[in-house]
Specification:
By secondary structure, this protein is of the alpha+beta class. The protein has eight helices and six strands; from the N terminus they run βββααβββαααααα.
């Protein structure tokens, strides 16, 4: 098994304009709007043609969405769908870890969860609870010193100075 797990796509349905209805190995059915991605990557511009977009189909082994000469990876599609549904994606969690230079161990310590749970969140094995994401944002905002918990939130001015 690879170091990273991502749910597999099982069914793809192209909807107009530039929306995909995706069914995943987790049982989730998620709609995702990919228009901004298509407009943002010149190599994908031909998919903006509705007739070409309608030809979307499942890539081999559920690893993506394919057209004749283009593909979107399943891990990206899954993350975009989760974010558009108002949930936290594994990519958001992984970006938070990288932005703060956190290892699995230091992220686990920061959040008060096990190293294994951090790994599950980062690789989409488990859904990231809203409380965990809020804890991530709170930890980042207060930047506690090692082995201490913050005593309070910074003032708006202190926060602005740190993040300027």
């Amino acid at each position: 098994m690879s170091d990273f797990f991502h749910p597999k796509l099982e069914v793809i349905e192209a909807m107009v304009p530039y929306r995909l209805r995706t069914t995943w190995s987790t049982g989730e059915v998620l709609d995702v709007d990919v228009e901004s991605v298509l407009r943002g990557i010149p190599a994908l511009a031909n998919l903006l043609d509705p007739q070409i977009f309608a030809r979307a189909h499942l890539a081999d082994w559920g690893h993506g969405v394919e057209w004749f000469d283009a593909e979107l990876g399943a891990d990206n599609v899954y993350a975009w769908a989760k974010e558009q549904a108002g949930e936290v994606s594994h990519q958001m969690f992984d970006t938070w870890m990288h932005r703060n230079a956190l290892s699995l161990n230091t992220a686990a310590d920061a959040l008060g969860v096990s190293r294994r749970m951090v790994s599950y969140y980062r690789t989409a094995h488990k859904a990231i609870p809203r409380a965990i994401w809020l804890a991530c944002l709170g930890w980042e905002a207060t930047r506690p010193k090692p082995k201490t918990l913050p005593r309070g939130l910074p003032t708006a001015r202190e926060y602005a100075l740190v993040h300027a």
